Amino acid sequence: GAVVSQHPSRVICKSGTSVKIECRSLDFQATTMFWYRQFPKQSLMLMATSNEGSKATYEQGVEKDKFLINHASLTLSTLTVTSAHPEDSSFYICSASKQATYEQYFGPGTRLTVT
Amino acid sequence: TQLLEQSPQFLSIQEGENLTVYCNSSSVFSSLQWYRQEPGEGPVLLVTVVTGGEVKKLKRLTFQFGDARKDSSLHITAAQPGDTGLYLCAGAGGSQGNLIFGKGTKLSVKP
């Protein structure tokens, strides 16, 4: 199997606070993990790619100081949205891929609402 | 820059009808994946096609990879309401294993 979990599934926070989202590959080791953002009725927008033990590679236009990514192990990556603002409200999805394959297995997503 | 053009963007059909979704690019992809996503959930991998001209079947779904590995299609036979969802094609092309996603096809099958 290839199961990816995400926690929390929903989170509501106040403007100015930080929120951490966890992404775990439950039954395989993920050499690479990806973080996406998805707006309503739209496709996925890649935010960053992270490999275990190294710095994440951010896509153009994504602020690395605002969206902190840590990939401490082959089964866990975290995304921290710092000083969140209402415009950061979105559906955040992570995915993980096994070594030597382009197939990505997605988590169930996290709905972030910033009030 | 590699792009995947996916069409149609929206599709609303009656139960029992057939449909085809297309993904086209001017770039060659080493492989192409099709995903299905339901509202409020993450995408689920349906199939991966690797070889040019490859055809894969998954029950009523038929996936085809173009001979030149630049395009792909998803054909659904006798669509059912349970097929409703967002269908995404994604091509493998990034240096870090990242995928290039199409914009998706939102399919609605009415009973």
Which features does this protein show?
heterodimer; A: 115 residues; mainly beta; seven-stranded mixed sheet; four-stranded antiparallel sheet; 0% helix; 53% strand; B: 111 residues; six-stranded mixed sheet; five-stranded antiparallel sheet; 11 strands; globular
Which helices and strands, and how do they pair?
The complex is a heterodimer of chains A (about 120) and B (about 110).
Chain A: E1 4-7, E2 10-13, E3 19-25, E4 32-38, E5 44-51, E6 57-58, E7 67-73, E8 76-81, E9 90-97, E10 104-106, E11 110-114
Parallel strand pairs in A: 2-11
Antiparallel strand pairs in A: 1-3, 3-8, 4-5, 4-9, 5-6, 7-8, 9-10, 9-11
Chain B: E1 5-7, E2 10-14, E3 19-24, E4 32-37, E5 44-49, E6 55-58, E7 61-65, E8 71-76, E9 85-92, E10 99-101, E11 105-110
Parallel strand pairs in B: 2-11
Antiparallel strand pairs in B: 1-3, 3-8, 4-5, 4-9, 6-7, 7-8, 9-10, 9-11
Describe it.
The complex is a heterodimer of chains A (115) and B (111). Chain A has 115 residues and is mostly beta strands. Chain A contains no helices and 11 strands. Chain A has strands at residues 4-7, 10-13, 19-25, 32-38, 44-51, 57-58, 67-73, 76-81, 90-97, 104-106, 110-114. In chain A, strands 2, 4, 5, 6, 9, 10 and 11 form a 7-stranded mixed sheet that branches. A 4-stranded antiparallel sheet of chain A has the order 1-3-8-7, with no helix packed on it. In chain A, strand 9 (90-97) and strand 10 form a beta hairpin. The mean pLDDT of chain A is 92. Chain B has no helices and 11 strands. Chain B is globular and about 45 Å long. In chain B, 36% of the residues are buried. The mean pLDDT of chain B is 93. At the A-B interface, strand 5, strand 9 and strand 10 of A face strand 5 and strand 9 of B.
